[in-house]
């Protein structure tokens, strides 16, 4: 009913913990499947496509069109066997990303973030992890990239409710990586010229395992 819908939107799609962060670790399999089964998988845009190299537009309409986009993003992410996907990676100029990603303890996190902003970390929380990083938009290429091993993102969920998401290790890397996408940055933009050249060489020498949009 309408009143219940209003209450649900005000309460938020996901529950929050005592510190106000979303609890995105419950019912991950069911939530991901529900999104994915309503969606249509789309090909992935790759480095060089203009939509990947500029800041995306803010999400202002949280209606049916956004819900279908999120479903398509979950479907596309599963096809590409990714752990995170930004809207511009399927050619849509909007600040929204989805994730289905484990942290370094193996705990699965699944959710949606619109209009994300990374929280600036105090110095005592900035421990760097220089693990390898890859990107669906730079298929088959990997390179070590130092990023903080803890990250917080503020934004909105798919209904427009304000949310806070935090993660450690691999999931922290995912949150930073996907937020970067929506502001026009690929991970290779944070590499040295030599490392970037090597990543592009890896991409050129191998075939992606999922459908991509060829750049004209």
Automatic annotation (TrEMBL):
<feature type="active site">
    <location>
        <position position="178"/>
    </location>
</feature>
<feature type="binding site">
    <location>
        <position position="181"/>
    </location>
    <ligand>
        <name>Fe cation</name>
    </ligand>
</feature>
<comment type="function">
    <text>Removes the formyl group from the N-terminal Met of newly synthesized proteins. Requires at least a dipeptide for an efficient rate of reaction. N-terminal L-methionine is a prerequisite for activity but the enzyme has broad specificity at other positions.</text>
</comment>
<dbReference type="Pfam" id="PF01327">
    <property type="entry name" value="Pep_deformylase"/>
</dbReference>
<keyword id="KW-0479">Metal-binding</keyword>
<feature type="binding site">
    <location>
        <position position="135"/>
    </location>
    <ligand>
        <name>Fe cation</name>
    </ligand>
</feature>
<keyword id="KW-0408">Iron</keyword>
<protein>
    <recommendedName>
        <fullName>Peptide deformylase</fullName>
        <ecNumber>3.5.1.88</ecNumber>
    </recommendedName>
</protein>
<feature type="binding site">
    <location>
        <position position="177"/>
    </location>
    <ligand>
        <name>Fe cation</name>
    </ligand>
</feature>
<dbReference type="InterPro" id="IPR036821">
    <property type="entry name" value="Peptide_deformylase_sf"/>
</dbReference>
<dbReference type="InterPro" id="IPR023635">
    <property type="entry name" value="Peptide_deformylase"/>
</dbReference>
<dbReference type="GO" id="GO:0042586">
    <property type="term" value="F:peptide deformylase activity"/>
</dbReference>
<comment type="similarity">
    <text>Belongs to the polypeptide deformylase family.</text>
</comment>
<keyword id="KW-0648">Protein biosynthesis</keyword>
<keyword id="KW-0378">Hydrolase</keyword>
């Amino acid at each position: 009913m309408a009143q219940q819908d209003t209450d649900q939107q005000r309460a938020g799609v996901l529950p929050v913990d005592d510190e106000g962060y979303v609890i995105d670790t419950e019912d991950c399999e069911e939530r991901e499947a529900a999104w994915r089964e309503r969606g249509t998988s789309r090909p992935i845009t790759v480095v060089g496509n203009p939509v990947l190299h500029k800041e995306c537009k803010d999400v202002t309409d949280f209606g049916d069109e956004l819900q279908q986009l999120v479903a398509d993003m979950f479907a596309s992410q599963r096809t590409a066997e990714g752990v995170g996907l930004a809207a511009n990676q399927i050619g849509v100029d909007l600040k929204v990303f989805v994730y289905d990603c484990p942290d370094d303890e193996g705990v699965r996190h699944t959710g949606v973030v619109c209009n994300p902003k990374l929280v600036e970390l105090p110095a005592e929380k900035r421990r760097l992890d220089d693990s390898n990083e890859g990107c669906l938009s730079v298929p088959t290429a990997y390179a070590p990239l130092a990023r903080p091993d803890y990250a917080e993102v503020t934004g909105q969920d798919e209904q427009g409710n304000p949310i806070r998401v935090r993660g450690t290790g691999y999931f922290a890397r995912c949150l930073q990586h996907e937020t970067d996408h929506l502001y026009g940055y690929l991970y290779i933009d944070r590499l040295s010229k030599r490392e970037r050249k090597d990543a592009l060489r890896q991409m050129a020498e191998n075939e992606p395992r999922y459908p991509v949009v060829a750049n004209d």
